[in-house]
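R.M. (postdoc): so does anyone remember the format we settled on? I'll just put the structure tokens first.
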């Protein structure tokens, strides 16, 4: 996903990305957050839930559209633009979540994030450190990686490209854990760093054998992430929440597409593609739990709704 964030492509699609993408995230966050507030949640918790569930699954959507040969259609290109904006928006959302929480770390729910040395810092300090770390890695990585790959290219060893790329991914993922963030976000940031390299095409071709396998593992992990015991005990809440999420986001997406002048059929395809939750929601839920944005019970419900919506639309 990170490799898709090429500066030249982002510039070419800037109107759709910034326009349609920002409106989708803001509109979906307000709609979902508003519904959460009607159930008695605070505005901070509701805003956090809205931002988390506004995300869609880049892996599932792109794979599905490509398989059905719909990626080059008007709806497919619009969906791709929105997904790119969402992937970029993850970083400021991660920086914002600590400001919405109580700052109380909950180690049992944070999957290791709460053990970070930042756990006892004020929310605004955590936000600055988080955002600064991501920006610093991208800025330094873009300069350093160019020189590293120049050296690797002189060896004329194709395996060296793969080894260095995987080393960068693992290294950045580990660095992200030091500031209390998910290794998955680290892999995404590493992809952004590698996307700016002139050797990007070589890297992509070398990583193709891994892509199908790891996508399969990803889909498997989504299924395994569904807590059927919790769903069975709270079927009405989780199933109803997943259905409401798909419906609310679908309506927002359909309206945005129609307002932008697209045909009804393309608008329906666009809305259906992005209506479910996304993989980054799991990362954001863990961070939100670690900073006290909402309770453990609410986090389990959100994870169930997100996973179930992804499974249904896959």
């Amino acid at each position: 996903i990170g490799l898709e964030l090429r500066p030249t492509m982002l510039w070419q699609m800037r109107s759709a990305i910034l326009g349609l993408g920002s409106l989708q995230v803001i509109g979906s966050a307000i709609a979902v957050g508003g519904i959460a507030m009607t159930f008695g949640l605070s505005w901070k918790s509701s805003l956090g839930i809205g931002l988390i569930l506004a995300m869609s699954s880049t892996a599932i959507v792109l794979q599905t559209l490509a398989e059905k040969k719909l990626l080059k259609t008007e709806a497919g290109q619009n969906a791709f633009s929105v997904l790119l904006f969402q992937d970029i928006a993850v970083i400021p959302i991660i920086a914002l979540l600590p400001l919405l929480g109580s700052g109380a770390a909950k180690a049992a729910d944070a999957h290791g994030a709460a053990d970070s040395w930042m756990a006892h810092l004020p929310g605004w300090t955590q936000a600055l450190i988080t955002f600064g770390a991501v920006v610093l890695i991208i800025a330094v990585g873009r300069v350093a990686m160019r020189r590293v790959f120049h050296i690797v290219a002189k060896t004329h060893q194709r395996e060296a490209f793969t080894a260095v790329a995987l080393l960068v991914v693992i290294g950045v993922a580990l660095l992200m854990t030091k500031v209390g963030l998910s290794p998955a976000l680290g892999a995404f940031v590493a992809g952004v760093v590698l996307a700016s390299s002139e050797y990007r095409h070589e890297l992509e071709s070398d990583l193709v054998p891994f892509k199908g396998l790891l996508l399969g593992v990803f889909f498997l992990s989504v299924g395994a992430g569904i807590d059927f015991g919790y769903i069975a005990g709270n079927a009405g809440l989780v199933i109803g929440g997943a259905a409401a999420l798909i419906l609310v986001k679908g309506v927002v997406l359909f309206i945005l597409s129609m307002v932008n002048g697209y045909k009804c059929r393309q608008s329906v395809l666009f809305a259906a593609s992005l209506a479910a939750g996304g993989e980054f929601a799991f990362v954001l839920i863990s961070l939100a739990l670690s900073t006290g944005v909402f309770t453990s019970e609410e986090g389990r419900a959100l994870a169930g709704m997100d996973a179930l919506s992804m499974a249904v639309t896959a």
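R.M.: ...and that's the designed sequence above, right after the tokens. Also worth knowing: The CA atoms of residues 143 and 193 lie 9 Å apart. The chain is about 75% helix and 0% strand.
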